[in-house]
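quick one before i forget lol
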Amino acid sequence: MTLRTDEVGEVLTVAALNRKVRAAAEQTCNGVWLEAEVSQAKVWGPGHIYFSLCDPGGKAQVPAVMWRTNAVRWGSLIREGTRILALGTATVYEVNGRYQFIAEKVLAAGAGDRARALAELTEKLRAEGLLAPERRRPLPRWPSCVGIVTSRQGAALRDIIKVTSRRFPVRLLLCHTAVQGAEAPADIERAIGTMGSRSDVDVVIVGRGGGGIDDLEAFNDERVVRAVAACPVPVISAVGHEVDTTLTDLVADRRAATPSEAAELAVPDGTAVAGQLNALRRRMEDGAHLRMAAERARHAALQGRMVARDPRTRLRAQMNRFSACREFLRGWPDHALGGRRMALMNASHGVYRWPEPALARARGHLGQLGAGLQALSPLANLSRGWAIVSRGGVVLKRADDVKAGESIRVRLAEGMIDAAVTGVVGTDGGTK
């Protein structure tokens, strides 16, 4: 049985298939927690850790990798035979279609209930669509006021102030809150709501400086996460160090590795803006100069046309032409008579000398014609030893035109010979 062309659906390359599988895996399995046993762990290259995660009894396993930036902090927990909780994303390596797990963070399995609760909350938020990339909003390009939700005593606030003051003049509005402890989640939720209710705030930075996993626990609280998701203005999460990841980071519109980077994302670069403005100013100046030059040229052309169309200018030109004609007419009789007199003298001189030069030219031309005729005469060729052979008055040009036994006449420079043909050698060399 054969299939028709119209029965074949979409045809993919292997690479395209791997890309589709990778996109689906990363979309549905992003930020998941795995509890498994480590096997085949080895450090490779500049510090990346390659290992496998296995279910008890080896019933199932998945290849995993932790890149060097995360391995510096969490790699000590990845040892052969240990049970861990791993946070990461499932993906597919497009070159060979290899399915693997990219681990971002690991905890000892003894962390237990808290880690499981975090994993359950992550799945709950994902099911509600709060972790979907398409819900993230773009940041304003030219904010006039940046809201900051953090502690006034923390280093995060100082870093944000330092960076924004260097980059661009913008108003900063701080809503002080505790960033760790039992009261922190409710306090952060309240501060985010306060910032979202203000009409003058264009973007909000939520975060704190680095710390241990317990110090960042408030930013994994469901209340804080939902407050970030519900905030009416874009939110930048800047919690902990680059290697730290919280649920607030996953829900926010943009994640910054540090508070300083959050300030860079929120505020444009004043130096770059100044450069763009200077470039625009130069373009405007160049355009103005070109426009002015064109207007000057147009004005000069219009002025020239006005001068050319001025009646006084035209009258002066007519007067100049009239004066020239008058001067010509004054001198015309003498000039014309002198010219005619000279022409008459030249003509009479030529008529007087005409017969002799003309006769000489005629003689020379006649001599040239006689010499040419002599060169073309057949008799001239006969004088050089050539002969003219004829039969019956017809000049022969080919040996094949006569046969043996026929009579021919040979004309020489002096006299003629009647002869009989005894043999003929043809053009092909054969005798006839």
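fyi The chain has four domains: 14-127, 139-268, 272-327, 380-420.
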